[in-house]
Amino acid sequence: MKQPIGPEDILRKKREYLIPCVYHFYTAPPQIVRGELQYLYDHTGKRYLDCFAGVSVVNCGHCHPDIVAALGAQAATLQHTSSVYLTQPVVDLAEALASVAPGRLRKSFFCASGSEANEGAALLAALATGRSEYISLRHALHGRTKLGMSLTGLAMWRTDASPVGGISFAPSPYCYRCPFDSRPDVCDLACADAVETIIKTTTSGQVAAMFAEPIQGNGGIITPPSGYFRRVKEILDHYGVLLVVDEVQTGFGRTGRMFAIEHYGVEPDVMTMAKALANGAPVGAFITRDEFAARFTRPSASTLGGNPVTAAAALATLEVIARDDLTGRAAALGGRLKAGLRALQERHPLIGDVRGLGLMLGAELVRADKSPATAETDAVLEKMKDRGFLVGKNGLHRNVLAFQPPLVISREDVDALLAALDDVLG
Ligand code: PMP
Which pTM does this prediction carry? Predict the structure, then answer.
């Protein structure tokens, strides 16, 4: 292995050779050189508990030996052909995905990222319905491409000042800052009903699809109330609008179910995936029902999509998740972490809200007047890093601590994380 050059030289090269839109966490960032399951190591040998998993990617842990073995064996045998030649890993993966996806979702298309998966899903929805308008949610993030960015409801990620037209935004189901000033105990799901008003007022009435993350990741782990998706789906069905559920960040055991939408008892018409599907090998996919897939017959090809190496990595990932019951582990350890965060909330008024499911948890940091504690969030992140814990950060005001560790973390890791956070908040 190459001798690490250290963070200063990395920052220098980054300034010199990377387009400056690529940003990083921390005032004093370490150089990460090695990963082993839930732990990362920097150039000095210091160990960190990874509480962000490369933004919800390495659900099975860094360099999981079974996944590395499958990936290496495939890379040494046949690395790439493109989809114009027949290979087996991609069809085995499609079969495996059909067996874990909710309801009638059965036919997949593979690409190389989450943004591409959402682009493809939008095209599929247009072909399946003969319509071209979309609904998305405020605080959503669906990608970095022209359309993905236009479906995104966070100004920070909408760099393009001439977005795609025909997209209407519905209020986010953000209970802590309810767009209708309601409270959970008296909530009548006005945010879900707003979808109908939007179809009737800001669209032609002919909408192809609504995009939604089951939990809004970049939006700040915004977790819709339990009846939200059922009500939304009734409305969409009434108007012939497809529901595209973006499981890019929430999928593959993360929330204590294989897919987060399962918590809401709703069957999506299309589901998009990426990130954790191959535990770090670049992959994206969308999956749909037979009748919608049947409308998508004109050629579409993603050169690297589902290539033998990423497909082999994804198959091994699905095996590890099932064999080691990482979904059950996420539910159990997520429960422990959430209870611990709630206990910290009682002692530390900086924590305004604790939310999320399984091991996709957020703690929104606020000042006494409930205004976003953005600078404090950065300070907490930096101090946690110095203590050996890499916590994530997101939200419209970048004031939500994100806890999305590899699902292989232990009880001891959770307890150590809570103890360090207690200390730092104090
Ligand atoms: N959808 C969601 C919910 C995401 O969180 C992201 C990335 N953070 C994307 C789509 C885009 O995925 P990618 O970066 O792989 O293009």
Answer: 0.98
